[in-house]
Specification:
Blueprint (H helix, E strand, L loop, with lengths): L7 H16 L3 E3 L5 E2 L5 E2 L1 E3 L8 H18 L7 E5 L3 H12 L3 E4 L12 E2 L7 E9 L3 H12 L3 E10 L6 H7 L3 E6 L1 H8 L7 H12 L1 H6 L7 H11 L1
Parallel strand pairs: 5-6, 5-8, 8-9, 9-10
Antiparallel strand pairs: 1-4, 2-3, 6-7
């Protein structure tokens, strides 16, 4: 299986992003000692998009691609404000807002509990068509919570952007679509695997195990003691608080 893209430009942008992530060692493969995500999924792969902020040329290229993707798929004048999700989405939102000459704010995971008890910091873009920005998404859960908080504050949010979308866990895009939230992303794990064919970033046994995970993440997680459905993932997160 390989990644599917809307256009040649989208494919080129995805592979460029994947190459950057591999070069700065933001990509981690650990089949022998699986990662456990906050949603309870077991996985041999983990990506640290926060590393990008420490590499000026990498972040410049990725943010340029982000804005081009937004313009191509949403429109040049269709976004009036940009909001970052606490905390990893804040720097990306700032850089994207700067390039788009748009106001920027950020949304907390929960109200801060004192003062005005605000959940959105900055000038709340009430009534404005606002782009929600984060670094990545696995199952879409945090995007839904952020979007709901924004909508409760009167913000119009129909689109969310992330640098990296895992693109493997069942129901993620359907969950977002169910609340009328359109997801834009630059790269997925399939793009990373395609770039790994160009250079030996990881051993062939590791790549083989990662392919097995990508082709059937539910069974891979279940067989290693992780959750095996979106329902189990939601229950796991609720229990963890």
């Amino acid at each position: 299986m390989t990644a599917t893209h809307l256009s040649d430009w989208d494919r080129d942008a995805a592979l460029t992003t994947a190459r950057i992530l591999l070069e700065i060692k933001a990509v981690n493969f650990r089949p022998e000692e699986p990662y456990t995500y906050t949603s309870g999924w077991k996985s041999p792969v983990y990506i640290d998009c926060r590393k990008i902020i420490s590499f000026p040329r990498a972040r410049t290229r990725i943010c340029d691609l982000a804005v081009e993707k937004i313009n191509r798929h949403i429109g040049f004048e269709s976004i009036e404000a940009v909001t970052g999700g606490e905390t990893a989405g804040i720097p990306y939102a700032a850089w994207i807002a700067d390039r788009m000459n748009a106001p920027m704010s950020y949304v907390r995971k929960k109200p801060k509990g004192f003062g005005k008890n605000a959940q959105i910091e900055g000038d709340v873009p009430e009534g404005k068509k606002t782009l929600l920005v984060e670094d990545l998404t696995t199952d879409g859960g945090s995007k839904i919570r952020f979007a709901q908080a924004m909508r409760d504050a009167g913000v119009i949010v129909d689109h969310t952007f992330v640098v990296f979308f895992y693109g493997v866990f069942p129901g993620a895009q359907e969950k977002l679509a169910a609340i009328n939230l359109n997801l834009l992303h630059l790269a997925t794990w399939w793009d990373v695997l395609e770039v790994c064919r160009e250079r030996p970033y990881f051993s062939e046994p590791a790549l083989k195990e990662v392919r097995k995970f990508l082709e059937d993440p539910v069974s891979w997680s279940r067989d290693r003691g992780g959750v095996a459905s979106m329902e189990e993932a939601e229950a796991y997160k609720a229990k963890a608080g």
